[in-house]
Write a structure and sequence with these properties.
single chain; 388 residues; mainly beta; Cathepsin D, subunit A, domain 1; 6-stranded mixed β-barrel; 6-stranded mixed β-sheet; 11% helix; 38% strand
C-alpha cells in the first residue's frame, strides 16, 4: 500500500524551506532544500562521504548545476539509499537513489543547508558520461570536453513513485516566504511537506481547490494569463519569438520572491502607483520600516493562470504575503516582488509568496503530460497550526 508521509520543513535565514534526509548505509542525516524549480538531488561532501558508505555505488556520471544565481558546481553521481521518515511512520527509502555529491564545497552554495532535493521533472536532471569514474577522478570544469551527454536521471521522488512506495504527488503548506525574525518566528518559520498525498490532509486547507494546468513538464510550467492589482488588470503574453521558454511562468518553491519578467514587473509597479503614488517606490526599494506600512491600504495581488480544461483560475497574494514583516530583521519588512531572474526572456518565476498561506498540491498521478497543481487557502493560523 502506498504511504503518505507528513514531514516537517523549516525556513532558514537562507530563505528556502528544508527537510531532513537519511543517506547511505549509515543513514547519515543531511538537511536539503525543498525545490520544485529543479530536479537534482545533491549533497556536499563535507556531510556525506561515499568512501565511507558501504552501500554506495560510484559511477562515470557527472552533473552540474547552480542555485539562486550562485556559482555553478559539479557533482559526482552516486547510487545509494536515501530515506525519509516522519515521526511514528514507516520509513520510506529509495534503495539506489541518484545522488550528486558536490566534491568542491562552496560556502553557502545551498544557504545553510547541506544539499538540495529537486522535485521537478527528469528533463531538468541531465547527466554527462565521463571517460572514467567521476568520484575517483573529481573532474574540473576544464576537463569536461571528453564528456558525452548521458540523458536524464530519475529524480528521487520519481524513483519512489515508480517503486510504488508513494503515489506520484506531493503537497506543501507554509506560512512565510522569508525567514521571520519576529516574535512568532518559531511558529511562522515551519511548514509541512506531504509526500505521496495531498487532498486527504483536510486539516491543512479550507474550502474547495482550484486547479492550475501544468502546460509543460520541465519545470512546473504554467500559463500566466494576467496579473491583477486591486481592480486593475494587465494581460500577459507568451514568451517572445525565439525564446527557449516552455511557458511564460513556472512555480518554484526554491525562490523566495515573485520574480517577474522585467517588462511585466514595470507594468505591475505602475499599477501599484495608480493605487498610491508612493507604493511603487516602496516596493522597488526592497525593504521598508514596517511601522510605516499600513497593509490595510495595500491591494491584493492576483495571478490569473490557465486552469484544467481551459478554465482560468485566480491565485491571490495578500499584502502580508508580498510584504514579509520582520523579514530583514525585527521591525523591517521585505518585499516579495523582484524584476528578472528567470532562465529565459518573457518568463516569470512564481515563488514562495504564492505558496504562503495556501496548501499547494502537485499532482502527477494522471501520468505524463497530465500533471496539475491544486491550491486552496489554509485555515487561520490560530485555528490550525502547521504540524507535521
Amino acid at each position: 500500500m502506498a504511504l503518505v508521509l507528513r514531514l516537517p520543513i523549516t525556513i532558514s535565514s537562507g530563505n528556502c524551506y528544508t527537510l531532513d534526509l537519511l543517506v547511505g548505509s549509515q543513514a547519515t542525516p543531511v538537511t536539503v532544500l525543498l525545490d520544485t524549480g529543479s530536479s537534482m538531488s545533491a549533497v556536499n561532501i563535507d556531510v556525506y562521504d561515499p568512501g565511507a558508505d558501504a552501500a554506495a555505488t560510484t559511477t562515470d556520471l557527472l552533473q552540474s548545476g547552480s542555485f539562486q544565481g550562485a556559482a555553478s558546481f559539479l557533482a559526482a553521481v552516486v547510487q545509494t539509499p536515501v530515506g525519509l521518515q516522519a515521526d511514528g511512520a514507516t520509513p520510506v527509502t529509495v534503495p539506489k537513489a541518484n545522488l550528486g555529491v558536490v566534491y568542491k564545497v562552496q560556502p553557502f552554495l545551498f544557504g545553510k543547508a547541506d544539499g538540495i532535493l529537486g522535485l521537478a521533472y527528469p528533463a531538468l536532471n541531465a547527466a554527462t558520461r565521463m571517460p572514467a569514474n567521476t568520484w575517483d577522478n573529481k573532474y574540473t570544469p576544464a576537463q569536461l570536453g571528453p564528456g558525452q551527454a548521458a540523458g536524464t536521471l530519475a529524480p528521487c521522488v520519481d524513483q519512489l513513485a515508480a517503486a510504488g512506495e508513494i503515489a506520484n504527488k506531493f503537497a506543501i503548506a507554509v506560512r512565510r516566504s522569508t525567514f521571520s525574525q519576529g516574535p512568532d518566528a518559531a511558529v511562522l518559520n515551519t511548514g509541512v511537506f506531504v509526500l505521496g498525498g495531498g487532498e486527504e490532509c483536510t486539516e491543512l486547507y479550507t474550502g474547495a481547490f482550484a486547479t492550475v494546468a501544468v502546460v509543460s513538464e520541465t519545470y512546473y510550467n504554467s500559463n500566466l494569463v494576467a496579473v491583477q492589482v486591486g481592480g486593475r488588470t494587465i494581460q500577459v503574453g507568451p514568451p517572445p519569438a525565439g525564446s527557449d521558454a516552455a511557458s511564460n511562468s513556472f512555480l518554484d518553491s526554491g525562490s523566495n520572491q515573485l520574480m517577474l519578467d522585467p517588462p511585466l514587473y514595470q507594468q505591475v509597479i505602475a499599477m501599484f502607483n495608480e493605487v498610491d503614488p508612493a507604493f511603487g517606490a516602496a516596493l522597488q526599494a526592497g525593504s521598508h520600516d514596517q511601522t510605516q506600512l499600513d497593509l490595510t491600504a495595500w491591494p491584493t495581488l492576483g495571478f490569473v493562470l490557465a486552469g484544467a480544461g481551459g478554465a482560468e483560475v485566480t491565485w491571490t497574494v495578500e499584502p502580508k504575503d508580498y510584504w514579509q514583516f520582520d523579514g530583514y530583521g525585527a521591525g523591517t519588512a521585505r518585499t516579495g516582488l523582484a524584476s528578472g531572474g528567470a532562465p529565459h526572456p518573457g518568463q516569470s518565476i512564481l515563488g514562495l509568496p504564492l505558496f504562503a498561506n495556501h496548501y499547494v498540491v502537485f499532482d502527477r498521478t494522471a501520468g505524463p503530460g497530465r500533471s496539475v497543481i491544486r491550491f486552496a487557502p489554509q485555515p487561520a493560523a490560530e485555528a490550525a497550526p502547521l504540524v507535521a
